[in-house]
# Entry
Amino acid sequence: MATIRDATPADAGAIAAVQVASWRAAYRGLLPDEVLAGLSVPGLTQMWTGRFAASPPRSSVVVACAGEAIVGFASGGPPESPDDRADPNLADVYTLYLDPAHWDRGIGAQLHDAVLARLAGHGFTHAGLWVLAGNERALRFYLRNGWTDTGRDPGSTGARRGWSCTSGGCSGTWMPAEALGGRWNLHERHSREHRS
Ligand SMILES: CC(C)(COP(=O)(O)OP(=O)(O)OC[C@H]1O[C@@H](n2cnc3c(N)ncnc32)[C@H](O)[C@@H]1OP(=O)(O)O)[C@@H](O)C(=O)NCCC(=O)NCCS
# Structure
């Protein structure tokens, strides 16, 4: 088991390092090798630093610590899809990533419960999330933890979350589906809903 706490701006670098390690382990074969090779801890550190500075409303980031070391994190807040924002009670779980050396110890479940508790504290009553097609470990995890497969395809919203990756790092932005040119579809096969 790990200790769970709210993240602070000083955690940005450790969160970025976990994210890169987790992506490279979980998304090998699911995303192009050059995307995974191009992930940059400094670039993502900058992205997380910006996120903490912006301090978006009704949003939380939690980290899991083994001793002093951050081994996982989760985040959530208002839905990323503009369409979903019409429901003020609906949140998104944006991220849930563990360092692969710490998978299968129940820490993912701890982070999951903590981020949902934070979202409930922000007044949300239910949540959605997107899972990369083929990420079977995560799909199993979410099904075990009370999520329902709604079968929704994010393409139906007219936008997909695309990622631009350069040697400077990766950043996620919403863009029209056609802007991705079909080269890679990072997301997302299913939407899940969680009601407590
Ligand atoms: C998906 C992910 C967050 C799940 O985290 P996890 O800690 O591995 O998952 P769990 O908490 O469910 O633990 C997995 C198993 O270990 C078991 N376990 C092992 N030791 C345990 C312990 N000490 N206490 C509790 N459970 C333990 C759990 O019971 C569970 O068993 P089960 O599969 O038979 O139910 C993690 O695998 C991960 O980071 N994956 C890569 C990133 C990713 O895909 N994220 C999702 C993006 S949408």
In short: The beta strands are 3-6, 60-66, 69-77, 90-98, 126-131, 148-149, 159-166, 169-176, 190-195. The radius of gyration is 16 Å.
